[in-house]
Amino acid sequence: MTEPSASPAADPTPDLNARYGRGRRSRRPLVIGGLGVLVLAALAWLIWAAWVQSNPPVTSQLQGFEIVSATSAKATVKVDRSKSVEASCRVQAKASDFSIVGELTVTVPADSPRHQVLPVTLTTQRSATSVVLVGCTTADQHRPR
Q1: In angstroms, what is the C-alpha Rg of the chain?
Q2: 8 Å CB contact between 117 and 89
Q3: Contact predicate 104/90, CB 8 Å
Q4: Which of 2, 21, 134, 137 has the fewest Cβ atoms surrounding its Cβ within 10 A?
Q5: What is the pTM of this model?
């Protein structure tokens, strides 16, 4: 009996690679890794932005107001600061047609207490019906809160 001759030089791997498409290495792991890094960077930025916006240096709240006369209104503003920075708080008096009839910006010095209640007296052009707190800002926080 004769055995079929097997040629040691005949390697079936190149034929199988050509047939089944296993030629070169795929770029898929590199692309997935790059996208993963990009997603992690975006997530880190999102967490940072949420943290900064949720912890402002100053917040304020209008606790109440009183219309004293046709040319005067009083308000009470609560100011809370997370650090000792100078803050500017803007208060407006409005008429029944929602026009601004008085406005005052109160400066809270950096060396004053961090949590305080400020009495504010506004002079108005005509009779006001309400007082509105626009908010407080600092040098680093330009959006009133």
Answers
A1: 35
A2: no
A3: yes
A4: 2
A5: 0.66
